[in-house]
Amino acid sequence: MKEYPEKPDTVYYFGTCLIDMFYPQAGMAGLNLIRREGIRVIFPQEQTCCGQPAYNSGFFKEAKKVALQQIRLFAEDYPIVVPSGSCAGMMKHHYPYLFAEDSNLDAVKRFSNRIVELSEFLVQVLKIKLEDRGRPVKVTWHSSCHALREMGVIEDSKSLIRQLKNVELVELLNENECCGFGGTFAVKQPDISGAMVADKVEDIRQTGASRLLAGDCGCLINISGAMEYQNLPVKGQHLAEFIWERIDGK
Amino acid sequence: MANNIGFDFTQNVSRALKDKQLRKNFKFAMGNFILKRQQIFPDKNETERLRESGKAIKKRALSKLPHLLEQLEEKCTRNGIQVHWAETTAEANQHVLRIMQAHSATRLVKGKSMVSEEMGLNEFLDQNGIEATETDLGEFIIQLNNEKPSHIIVPAIHKNKKQIAQIFHQKIPATPYTEDVEALNAIARKTLRQKFFDAQIGLSGVNMAVAETGTLCLVENEGNGRMCTTVPPVHIAVMGLEKVVEKLADVPPLLRLLTGSATGQLITTYVNMITSPRKNGEKDGPKEVHLIILDNGRSEILADPELRQTLQCIRCGTCLNHCPVYTRIGGHAYGFVYPGPIGKILNPQVEGLKKAGILATASSLCEACAEVCPVKIPIPQLLRRLRNEAYTREPSCTVKECGCQQNLIDSLAWKGWEVINTRSRLNAIGRKIMGVVGSKIPPLGPLKLWNRYRIPPKFARKSLHQLVKEQGVENE
Which of B293, B286, B340, B224 is nearest to B73 (CA)? Predict the structure, then answer.
C-alpha cells in the first residue's frame, strides 16, 4: 500500500520540459486544479528537465548534473507534484539509483520521497470533486508505461474521468502496451517505434472516440503526431487540460 | 553464438516489419501466451510473493555459485554422472564430439536446448560427419527448413499451420500436403520414432541442476525429452553454469514460475529428474550420463554485482511474449541465439558491445518485461547500464568493448543538453527562441526520422514558465 501525505498547505509544481515547450496549457490546468482546492503552489522558475532523456540514452553523468539542478530548487519540505507519470517515475524511482554511490544520496532521497504524480495527488490527497459542465463526449484512455508500471496511478487517472458524468470512457484495446515513444528510442529505432505507434493509432480508431486522453505528454506528442499523420480526426489531450475544460475552470 | 554473420540489425528490422504474415503470426501467438499467463497467475499478490521467492533462490545460488558448482560436480560424480567443464562453446562442442567418438557414434537425437544453440552444436557435428536430429516438434520443423529458433521456448512460433504443412510436404519424403494438425503431429511422430531407435546418443538441456543432490531437472511437454534421455545408451546434458540451484527444495517454486510464465501451465506434461545412469539390476535408462557445464562469458557477468542479475534468468521466454518490440520484429531479427528483452541484455555482455550493443537500443524501456519476469530481473535498468557502458570508458565499466560507441556528435549533443538544462537563463532564452522559430526547424537528422511516421509537435508561443509568471504563481 502506498502512503500519501495529509492535505498540505503548499506544494511545489514541476512542469516537465515537454509540457513547458509543447503543452503549457496542460501544465497550467494541472496547476489550477491544485489551486482550486485552496492550496498554494510554488513553481520554481529555474526548473528545466528531470534528466530522463540523457539517462535513458546512457548519458548518466549529464543526467545527474541536470537532476541535481532540480533537486536544489525544491529545497523546502513540500510535496512535489508532477503532471507526468514518466518524469515522476524518473525523479521518484530512478534518482536514487542514479545517485546510489554519490555523496548527495541523502538529499536525493529526501527529494524523491516527496514526488507525487498529479492524478494521484488530486484523488488520494485532495480527494477532488469534479462537476462536469461539458457536452456528451466519447473519449478513450492511453496508459503510459511509467504511470502504469512505475507510479501505479492509472486507476486514479481513470477515476477522475469517471467523475465526469457526460464523458463516456471507451476502453482502448491493448491499453497497457507501449505507444512506441520511449524518448530517443523513437529516433534511434524509428521503424520499430513507427510500427508500435501505427498499431496504437489503429486501436484508437477502433474505439470511435473523439479524444484520446493520457497523463504523459511524451506519449501524446507521439500518438497525436501519428494520428495527424494518418489523418485520424482524434484529438490527443492531457488529462488535466481535459478536466479543466470540462469543469469550465470552476 | 552463431547465426549473426553479416549481422545488420536495422536491415533485419526493416525486413521483419514488412513481413505482414510474420507480424500476424507473432501478434496472435504472443497474445495467447499473455492470456494464458494471466490465467495461471490470477492473484497479483500471490504472484508477487512467488516472484520474490524465485528471485531470492536465484540470487542465493549466484552468491555462492563457485561453491555450488563444485558441490554439483561432486554429487554428480558420486551418482555416476560424468561432469565436463567448458570455458568456451568450442570446448563444449569438443566434449560432445569426444564422447560421440568414444562410442563410435554417428547419430544423435536432441531434446530442446538453447545452450546447444549457443554452441552451434548442430553445425559443428555436421562438419564432423555426425547427424544431429532435433526432436522437439518446433525445433524439428525449423531444422527441416534450415532455420534457427525465433523464440526461446517455442522455436517455430513464427510459422503458422500452412507454412508447417508446406515444410513437411517438401522436406519429408513421401509426405502428402495436409493442414490437419493431428495428421501433421503424426507425421512428425512417425519420422522421429525411428530416429530415437537409431540414435546412439541423446542430448538434452537442463532447466535446473541441484547441487545438494546432483539432480538434473528437465521440463517438457512432448515426451521427446524423456526419450532422448532414456532411449539411447548414452545421455549428454548441456547446461549454462547459472542453472545450478542449491537445494532440492528450491525446485518447486522455480518450476511453478517457469511453467506458469513460459506456457501458462501449472506443470508440464513431463518433469524429468535425472540423478544417475542406469544402475546395476535396473532395466532401463542410459548406461552413461554426461553433464557439460558451459561458461562462455558467464563468470565475467557474475563478477559485476549489477549485471549479475542477468544470470538469474530461467529461460521461460515470458519477457519475449510481453515485449512490444519482439512481438513486432520476431526472434530472427535480433540476429543472435537469444532474442527479445533477455537477449538484449545477454548478447551484448557475451558478444561485446561492438557487435551486439545495438540490441540495447531496441527498447522503449516500457518495463513490460520487468513486470512479468519470474525472477525479477530489472531488464530496463540493465539496458540503461549497457547503453551507458557503450558510451563510457571508465574503470568502473565491466562490459566487453565499453565505450565503443563514443563519438563526438553524441557527446557534444548531450553536453549541450546538459548546459542548457543547468543554466536557467540560457534555458529561458532557448524557450523563447523555440517558441518563435521552433516550428520552422528544417526536418533533418532525428526530426527527419520522427517525421517518417508523425507530424512534429508544435512549439507553444508561450512556455509554461511564461504562463506561470504571467499568472503570478509564486517562484519560491
Answer: B293
Residue A222 lies in a domain: yes
B391 in contact with A at a CB cutoff of 8 Å? Answer: yes
- The C-alpha cell 516550428 sits at B439
Cβ-in-10-Å burial (0-12, 13-18, 19+) of A103 comes to exposed
A110, A71 contact by CB (below 8 A): no
A212: pLDDT strictly greater than 80? yes
Q: How is residue B459 annotated by DSSP? A: P
Are both A120 and A16 inside the same structural domain? yes
This prediction has a pTM of 0.96
C-alpha cell at A12: 511545489
- Do A49 and B390 lie within an 8 Å CB cutoff? no
CA distances from B350 to A84, B151, B354 (A): 37, 19, 11
User: Do residues A16 and A117 both lie within one domain?
Assistant: yes
In a domain, A1, yes or no: no
> Is residue A110 in a domain?
yes
Does residue A130 sit within a domain?
no
Per the CB < 8 A criterion, the answer to whether B263 and B220 are in contact is no
Closest CA to B357 of A188, A62, A194: A188
Query: Are both A78 and A164 inside the same structural domain?
Result: no
Nearest to A210 by CA among A236, A240, A241: A236
Query: Looking at residue B439, what DSSP letter applies?
Result: G
Query: Containing domain of residue A83, as a range?
Result: 10-125
What sign has the CA pseudo-torsion B385, B391, B392, B393?
positive
Question: What's the total number of domains in chain A?
Answer: 2
Which of B421, B423, B426, B441 would you mutate first to test chain A, the one with the most A CBs within 10 A?
Answer: B421
A197 contacts B421? CB cut-off 8 A? no
For residue range B208-231, list pLDDT tens digits in order: 999 999 999 999 999 999 999 999
Q: Supply the CATH classification number for the domain B15-299.
A: 3.40.50.10420
Contact B156, B141 (CB under 8 A): yes
Residue in B closest to A55 by C-alpha:
B384
For residue A27, the model assigns a pLDDT of: 98
Chain A nearest CA to B457, separation (Å) = 6
CA-CA distances (angstroms) from residue A26 to A20, A111, B161?
9, 24, 50
- A44–B476 C-beta distance less than 8 A: yes
Q: Using 70 as the pLDDT threshold, list the residues of chain B that sit under it.
A: 1-6
Q: Identify how many contiguous H helices and E strands chain B contains and give both numbers.
A: 23, 10
The ipTM estimated for the assembled molecules is 0.97
Q: What is the pLDDT of residue B4?
A: 52
Does one domain contain both A150 and A91? Answer: no
The set of cell numbers assigned to B58 is 536465484
What is the tens place of the pLDDT at every residue in A128-153? 999 999 999 999 999 999 999 999 99
Contact A208, A138 (CB under 8 A): yes
Q: In chain B, where are the structural domains located? A: 15-299, 421-470
Measured between beta carbons, the chain A residues lying within 8 angstroms of B414 are 54, 57, 59, 62
Same domain, A161 and A210: yes
Q: Min CA distance, B335 vs chain A (Å)?
A: 16
Boundary (domain end) residue, out of A125, A149, A164: A125
- Co-location of A104 and A160 in the same domain: no
* Whether residues A120 and A17 fall in one domain: yes
